[in-house]
Amino acid sequence: MPETLLAHEPAIRLGAFAGVLALMALWELFAPRRHQAIGRDSRWPGNLGIVVLDSLMVRTVFPTAAVGVALIAEARSWGLLHTLEVPTWLSVLAGVIGLDLAIYLQHVLFHAVPVLWRLHRMHHSDLEFDVTTGVRFHPIEILLSMVVFEVLLNATSMFNHGNVRLPARLDRMLRWIVVTPDMHRVHHSVVPRETNSNFGFNLPWWDRLFGTYRAEPAAGHEGMTIGIDQFRDPRELRLDRMLVQPFRDDDRTYPLGRREPVA
Q1: How far apart are CA 16 and CA 91, in angstroms?
Q2: What is the separation of C-alpha 47 from the centre of its chain, rounded to a whole number of angstroms?
Q3: Does 173 fall in a domain?
Q4: Exposed, middle or buried, 247 (CB in 10 Å: 0-12/13-18/19+)?
């Protein structure tokens, strides 16, 4: 089985990506959460262009990719969970929880370290919030994140960045087990104290545990402003400008180092 999965790993990844993207795009079309002032035609070419560049770069630098390495480890019984001989269901559960904690900690790190924020701010400089925001990451950030950025993160990132509407009661229930679009949208607010909240990608527990959880944006989901202060010009949505954002302007206002004036 691992050999079969490894042989078809690129097709599996592409199929998962295309399937989730199509599903979320249709959901956004029929049940949008927010009105978008800037349309898909201005944003999607750059956002999806980044995906193509990221994929080509990953395939060039890491031909096997993290999924391939994981399948090889499974076939050869490498790793701590194999050594402990725990049941398959428990190893999967422990692996997902451990991966999600690593993603949370990495996310906080990319906000806290100035040189890493330079890379990550391209993700935040999108002026709207939808499924393609979930795959808008600078190629250098992808290289640094390969250990955790694979099929699971890719699919859940597109879900929790979706501009989709969920019934309020269902959203409140889901937030105890998964990061919902309304929960993660707060993280994309232009307000720094909201940018510095809701770092989780899959599981919501880490934000509650480490005190970074914020239930709602102060201005509400319809009234909040998406993006960051440094890149408000819609021309910044072009692919060429997105790629050079880490190398432009200063990074002294990166979120975790920023101090808002006292009212």
Answers
A1: 23
A2: 13
A3: yes
A4: exposed
78 residue type, one letter: W
pTM over 0.90: no
Q: Does residue 16 fall inside a structural domain?
A: yes
Residue from 150, 216, 208, 152 nearest 184 by CA: 216
* 65-68 long-range contacts, CB within 8 A, separation 24+: 65/9, 65/13, 65/146, 65/150, 66/146, 66/147, 66/148, 66/149, 66/150, 67/9, 67/12, 67/13, 67/150, 67/151, 68/6, 68/9
Whether 214 is covered by a domain: the verdict is yes
Note the pLDDT tens digit of each residue in 55-65.
888 777 765 55
The residue that leads in pLDDT, 83 or 139, is 139
What lies within 8 Å, CB to CB, of 78 at 6+ separation is 72
Look up tokens 């990319």; give the residue: 110
Helix (H, G, I), strand (E, B) or coil at 224: coil
Residue 263 domain-assigned (yes or no): no
Domain of 6 in residue numbering reads as 2-256
Count of all residues that appear for the chain in the document: 263
Total structural domains within the chain = 1
Helix axes of 88-112 and 151-160: crossing angle, nearest 10 degrees: 60
Q: For residues 9 and 12, give the distance between their C-alpha atoms in angstroms, rounded to a whole number.
A: 5
